[in-house]
Design a protein that fits this description.
alpha+beta; 12 strands
């Protein structure tokens, strides 16, 4: 699997690459008590027709198997390889005969190894893959002139794709350097094919001057989330289409709330950031980064504290970046409009 990240892509290229990779996917429902780890850390398992060749696993998939066996992943990784295999095999051999795991894999292009195991899940897991998700979105975003890809990240755990719409922009004052502070409405899409997260469609606002995003945080149902269980693709299209339209509208509403946040004064922004960081349990390094990025903002309102957080989020990738942007959005949600 090729991991992908950052902007500079267009939607069709992303979808074409996902469809190409989809040709290498293969899933197996296997008896869990017949999965074995070899001393070299690779796995063997029995399929319906044959014993699979020794297969490597991603760190995520290996941790999922440890979790199913109630084995601490950190301890297992500290063990010598032969002892790790001994522990793993001891517990898999004792699983109930009727327990089955869904192993999500990529076929190896080389014949020396078996499939790359990328996920170990319940056999009841509902598969809804990235190419299916973005295939639905393709008909909703218009032409290349109608949208831009401002963030694209995919790794062994999942994917994040951020689509923004140039027609939905607003100037919210000026930066410290005197440039127009232009914000653009967007939608953030997330998914995991291996059980790391739900299918998610989230409203957002994208700040052009520093290429950062403000994610909508809400607990009132406006963020679409669908777990990978009891999920039927035919039902998903209408739900995704409705959620995508609602997210664009909610992003437009966020611009109004962001403008109102400029009027919410923060008495001592640096102390506010320290208190927030302590509450959210940020590392000292991240606290320092947010403080540093705040110094590039031209005011002492809540708006600029949020922007400092989203600037700091650019030092992160994937889920970690989105979580910090959502924390900024949590502040926005408290602003009255």
């Amino acid at each position: 699997m090729n991991y992908m990240h950052n902007a500079g892509e267009n939607f069709k290229r992303i979808l074409d690459e996902l469809n190409r990779q989809a040709q290498l996917k293969e899933d197996f429902v296997v008896p869990a008590n017949q999965i074995r780890m070899r001393d070299d850390g690779h796995f063997t398992f029995q399929t319906l027709f044959t014993n699979e060749a020794a297969s490597p696993a991603t760190e995520w998939a290996e941790n999922q198997m440890y979790q199913k066996l109630e084995l601490p992943a950190r301890f297992m990784r500290r063990c010598p390889s032969y002892l790790r295999a001994t522990n793993f095999n001891y517990f898999t051999e004792r699983l109930p005969a009727d327990e089955e795991w869904l192993l999500r894999t990529y076929r190896s292009r080389a014949n020396q190894l078996g499939h790359m195991i990328r996920g170990a899940l319940s056999k009841d897991y509902s598969r809804f893959d990235d190419e299916q998700f973005l295939g639905m979105i393709e008909s909703m975003i218009g032409t290349e002139e109608d949208h831009r890809i401002s963030y694209w990240y995919r790794d062994e755990r999942g994917m994040h794709l951020r689509i923004v719409f140039p027609d939905l922009t607003r100037n919210i004052g000026r930066t410290l350097e005197g440039r127009p502070d232009v914000h653009m409405v967007g939608v953030h899409l997330s998914n995991s094919e291996v059980g790391a997260r739900s299918v998610t469609i989230q409203p957002m606002v994208y700040r052009l001057v520093c290429s950062n995003g403000l994610m909508r945080w809400t607990n009132d149902g406006e963020v679409f989330k669908q777990r990978h269980i009891h999920l039927r693709e035919r039902e998903m299209y209408s739900r995704v289409a409705e959620a995508f339209t609602a997210a664009v509208k909610a992003g437009d509403d966020m611009l109004e709330r962001a403008l109102a946040a400029k009027e919410v004064k923060v008495e001592n922004p640096l102390d506010f950031i320290k208190t927030l960081a302590k509450d959210k349990k940020y590392s000292q390094s991240m606290t320092d980064t947010i403080t540093s990025t705040y110094m590039a903002e031209p005011g002492d309102s809540l708006f600029y504290v949020m922007q400092a957080m989203t600037r700091a989020a650019q030092t992160l990738q994937g889920d970690a970046r989105v979580e910090l942007e959502q924390d900024a959005g949590e502040l926005l949600a408290k602003v009255a409009v």
